[in-house]
């Protein structure tokens, strides 16, 4: 019995030693690797600081720093913002089919841009207009700020929306040309450090005047964003641009060379966009990647065979190039004939 007590006491001492050792390594790593202390907090005596640090560490909200970067131990000055753009092909259908909430749960975007919502604001339930998210600071649930624009020309057509964790300083609707703004195709959100434009560009199919409308919209849009760029603004524009730029941006370029979405005049406009200093973020990271698409025809089950088109984009102005961290085509997410596209970008706090 005495021998058993000695062994238990020994195991207890060893366990306590291991716990202390792990905590020591943990706090030493955090104090060396992360900027979170200002010298006024003591993790050994302040339980709030202890649990805050543990929560941040476990949830990867602390950015690794080298010793040289630590300086005086101030808080991180930047963070990674996640933006997602997605043509939903009908927001009410997306909600009804169960693809709306899982997008937030799976990807947790800081900003979500939707196109082809095909809905009036009052047709979207309040619980979907004010979607909640868990605040990373640990202060509980908050709601996204949401902004909707719908077609004035015809109900159940076109439409765009923005969901944002950060409230924009200003929101504008349209591209500033009344005859082109009746279809509810654009929302511009002005943030402290950048401007975001979410746009659903016209398809251009059908009657010849629709292609003319598309090209007129293209030209007016480029004028608008170029004017903002001249003012030195940091600009992101995204959405369904409804054109594959080069032959590697669609599965069958030869067969579609005379079809809307890959016409020479549409592709020439994309050339002009690039010539004006705008960067196609996906091609910035993957200049020669093939078989990377964001749209597939539903009727021919093209997605199963990956016979698609890359017609959804993020573009950025030159002064944001050094802030780009990555982009992903989220091709495993369903719910539309398009898939979401993600942009990760470094932003100042």
Description:
This protein is α+β, with helices and mostly antiparallel strands and 349 residues long. 31% of the residues lie in helices and 22% in strands. It has 10 helices and 16 strands. The chain has helices spanning 2-33, 47-58, 67-70, 91-96, 101-107, 126-129, 208-230, 264-275, 281-285, 302-305; strands spanning 78-87, 111-115, 132-134, 141-143, 145-149, 160-164, 170-173, 186-190, 195-200, 235-240, 279-280, 295-296, 308-309, 312-316, 324-329, 341-348. The strands form 4 sheets. A 6-stranded mixed sheet has the order 5-6-2-1-16-15. β9, α7 (208-230) and β10 (235-240) form a beta-alpha-beta unit. α7 packs parallel to α8 (264-275). The longest helix has 32 residues, at 2-33.
Listing every helix as H and every strand as E from the N terminus to the C terminus, the arrangement reads HHHEHHEHEEEEEEEHEHEHEHEEEE
Question: Please, how many helices?
Answer: 10
The helix-and-strand class reads alpha+beta
Q: What best-fitting shape do the alpha-carbon axes yield?
A: globular
The value of Rg in angstroms is: 25 Å
Mean pLDDT equals 85
Compute the number of strand runs.
16
Largest sheet: 6 strands, mixed
Strands across the major sheet, in which order? 5-6-2-1-16-15
Instruction: Please report the distance between the alpha carbons of the first and last residues.
Output: 62 Å
Helix content: 25-40%
Would you identify the regions where 5 or more consecutive residues have pLDDT less than 50? Answer: 24-71
| Beta-strand proportion | 15-25%
């Amino acid at each position: 019995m005495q021998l058993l007590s000695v062994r238990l006491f020994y195991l207890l001492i060893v366990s306590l030693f291991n716990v202390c050792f792990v905590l020591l390594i943990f706090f030493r790593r955090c104090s060396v690797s992360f900027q979170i202390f200002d010298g006024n907090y003591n993790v050994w005596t302040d339980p709030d600081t202890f649990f805050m640090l543990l929560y941040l560490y476990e949830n990867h909200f602390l950015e690794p720093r080298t010793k040289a970067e630590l300086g005086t131990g101030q808080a991180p000055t930047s963070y990674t913002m996640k933006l997602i753009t997605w043509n939903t092909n009908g927001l009410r259908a997306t909600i009804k089919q169960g693809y709306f909430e899982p997008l937030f749960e799976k990807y947790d975007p800081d900003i979500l841009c939707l196109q082809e919502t095909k809905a009036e604001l009052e047709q979207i339930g309040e619980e979907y207009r004010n979607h909640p998210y868990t605040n990373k600071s640990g202060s509980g649930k908050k709601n996204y700020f949401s902004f909707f624009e719908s077609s004035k020309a015809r109900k159940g057509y076109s439409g765009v929306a923005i969901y944002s964790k950060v409230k924009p300083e200003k929101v504008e609707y349209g591209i500033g040309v009344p005859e082109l703004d009746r279809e509810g195709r654009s929302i511009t959100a002005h943030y402290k450090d950048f401007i975001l434009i979410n746009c659903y560009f016209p398809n251009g199919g059908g009657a010849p005047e629709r292609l003319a409308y598309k090209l007129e919209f293209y030209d007016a849009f480029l004028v608008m964003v170029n004017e903002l760029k001249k003012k030195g603004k940091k600009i992101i524009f995204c959405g369904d641009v409804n054109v594959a730029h080069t032959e590697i941006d669609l599965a069958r370029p030869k067969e579609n060379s005379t079809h809307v979405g890959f016409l020479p005049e549409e592709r020439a406009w994309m050339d002009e966009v690039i010539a004006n200093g705008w960067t196609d973020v996906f091609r910035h990271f993957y200049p020669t990647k093939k078989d990377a698409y964001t749209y597939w025809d539903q009727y021919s089950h093209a997605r199963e065979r990956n016979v698609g088109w890359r017609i959804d984009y993020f573009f950025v102005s030159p002064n944001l190039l050094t802030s780009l961290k990555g982009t992903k085509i989220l091709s495993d997410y369903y719910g539309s004939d398009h898939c979401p596209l993600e942009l990760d970008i470094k932003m100042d706090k």
